[in-house]
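Exercise 3.2. Students should predict the tertiary structure of the chain below and write it as structure tokens, then compare their answer with the key that follows.

Predict this chain's 3D structure.
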Amino acid sequence: MIAIINAVASLAGTWMEGKVETQKAKVEVAKRVAAGEQEWNQTMASASASSWKDEWLTILVSIPLILAFTGHEDIVQRGFDALIDVFGADHGGYVKRMKAAVAAVSDNGVPLDVKLTQLVRLFKGGEPFKMSKRAGTFVMLRDVVDEVGADVTRFIMLTRKNDAPLDFDLDKVMEQSKDNPVFYVQYAHARIQSVLRKSVEAGMGSSGAPDDLTQLSDPAEFSLIAKLAEWPRMVEIAAQSNEPHRIAFYLYDLSAEFHALWNKGNGEPHLRFFQEDDAAATAAKLALIRAVAVVISNGLGILGVKPVKKM
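Answer key:
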């Protein structure tokens, strides 16, 4: 009972703050209108127009919600020390209220991180797919997965920060080009696997550490090494901030560094991964790209995407 009273008190203290957040959302809509994002803004403005309903609903629904929280204290008791909620962008006014409720029922012991997600606009054939709740025209996530696959869907959804709008083009995500981040990253991994298979066939496929890494001396190789060195810190930051899109961004940048080295080797033979007259240089170069493959594979695994070995 005390927890409920505390929660109601905290909720009352943040109710006006919630209204301020709603006004901020309306200001953001106005900014986007000025930027020319009319269609997106019309949807957001429509949601904001009903904000007065949200405020009354909050009052009516808050008490049952808090009661629900008090019935789920076993989540904390089972060892969970953090909560993450995912809200639509038009529900930004609820954030402070919900954090206050969680803080009250957990005695400030469990933090709540609320991620506000923007809209996803679907495109097909270069045209946006119009969706309407009133008309009953909509696309389920299952429909998207069935058309392009789960791995593609996961990766593309993570190529934008959650609070940034995303244009999901069903045609572009299947293209084999640099503009398709899924293909670009997977192609880097497949290229490396192809080189490693050929190295085994040539009797140079040792997975041990090379004796002489000083054979890597070109700026393009140094750039790739520097990007690899960012990986541990990138994973740590993404985990601490609950921002998996950082992994997707990093994998794309790492793949770009690898593809740049590959392309440079087409014009400069000494940069190619196989040096027929220099076993030490070959071993060092293979060790470098093997490390790239390991990081790409691990990164895709974090995102729930299976790395491909052939394309």
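Discussion points: Strands lie at 83-88, 112-117, 120-124, 127-128, 166-169. Residues 2-34 form the longest helix (33 residues).
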